[in-house]
Amino acid sequence: MADLGIWKREYRLDKMSLGELWVAFFLYPAIQVYLLLAAGSAYVSWRVAESVAPIAVSVLLVLLIYPLVWYLLHRYVLHGRFLYRSPLTAKVWKRIHFDHHRDPHDLKVLFGALYTTLPTIFLVVTPIGWLIGGLAGASSALCAGLLVTCFYEFCHCVQHLRYTPKWPFLQRIKKLHLQHHFHDENRNYGITSFLPDKAFGTFDEEVKGRARSETVFNLGYTRQEVRRYPWVARLTPDLDEEKAAREGVDRRHPRAT
Questions:
Q1: Positive or negative, the Cα torsion across 80, 81, 84, 86?
Q2: Which molecular-function annotations from GO does this UniProt entry contain (predicted)?
């Protein structure tokens, strides 16, 4: 999806302005899919709903559970080590998180992959809405889940953008998220909310004075892991499998253009 049309060229958040991000964000195919599906879900909800109450409750519950769901997925799936240990799922792990941590400013791999995000959103939110209000509740929950995903994705973009936010909320979440990417990948899993991090003991307000994690860019895919599970290295064009197995995997440094 990311190689269609204007997405054939490179998009570097460390070289983009906020205005350029706005344009790229709404031209990205996955965002367009989310918005179209959200509009369709909202229409279904409007057509079949008999009252506002189940819609409102469904949307509210989606908003409340999303930070926890994201935290659990981010910590135990995206940062888990089971996906790269199978040749059947190594490509998925590489696409959905390894590439992003190796090159946090590449916009193409910052956005989630539709083949993983859409089923996840659907499976998480629609049962909640269905239990509350049947089809109207499920469709409104899906609409909310898709729109919240768009909000998460935009905040995530700003966190990696060469831009200092003026809104204190964005300033704070950007600081905390960049610590996750450039200091310790086992802390601050949140994107827009760090309440689950506080609840589960993975929150860090300040990292000054502490050594940087040795696996912050490779997520534990070390030289030992490359030897045992070489599939991600083989799928990564800038990695030489033998060198990675000998010296390890570090941050990707794109060539200057």
A1: negative
A2: fatty acid 2-hydroxylase activity; iron ion binding
Please give the Cα distance from 240 to 143 (Å, whole number): 43
Residue 69 lies in a domain: yes
Domain range holding 162?
18-247
Residue 52, SS3 per DSSP: coil
Query: From residue 22, how far is each of 13, 25, 147, 151, 155 by CA, in Å?
Result: 12, 5, 16, 12, 11
For the chain, what is the domain count?
Answer: 1
Digitized pLDDT (tens) for each residue of the chain, 257 residues in all: 444 455 567 789 999 999 999 999 999 999 999 999 999 999 999 999 999 999 999 999 999 999 999 999 999 999 999 999 999 999 999 999 999 999 999 999 999 999 999 999 999 999 999 999 999 999 999 999 999 999 999 999 999 999 999 999 999 999 999 999 999 999 999 999 999 999 999 999 988 778 899 999 999 999 999 999 999 999 999 999 999 999 999 999 886 55
Q: How many C-beta atoms lie closer than 10 Å to residue 252's C-beta?
A: 18
Strand partners of residue 12: 106
- Write the CA distances from 134 to 58, 121, 130, integer angstroms: 10, 17, 4
27 neighbors 11 (Cβ within 8 angstroms): no
Q: How far apart are CA 177 and CA 167, in angstroms?
A: 16
Neighbours of 118 (CB within 10 A): 18
CB 176 within 8 A of CB 206: no
